[in-house]
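Homework help board

Subject: predicted structure for assignment chain

Our instructor gave us this sequence and asked us to write out the predicted structure in token form, then describe one feature. I got the tokens but I'm not sure how to describe them. Can anyone check?
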Amino acid sequence: MASFRSAARNGAAAGGAVLAEEPCPPRGTPRERLDELFRAHSGFVARLVLRLIGRDDEVDDVVQDVFVVLFRQLASPKRSVP
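My token output:
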């Protein structure tokens, strides 16, 4: 897996997802959908984390923590949609 630090530092396009006008129905297995969510947004999260904490050596850990919390919340039967 590539380092998020390099993506954050270089402003890679990994997090530049474009939202469709209408949501698409979910495709693939839950694991594939989580992988796609991670691929689509991890670059953006890494850049945001780098700007917020300013410590290059902590970016990978914080990004991983963010997605662990997100995936747990998505898997929770008690999740609420605002």
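Reply (TA_rk): Your tokens look well-formed. For the description, you could write something like this. Residues 1-9+29-76 form one domain. That's the kind of observation they're looking for.
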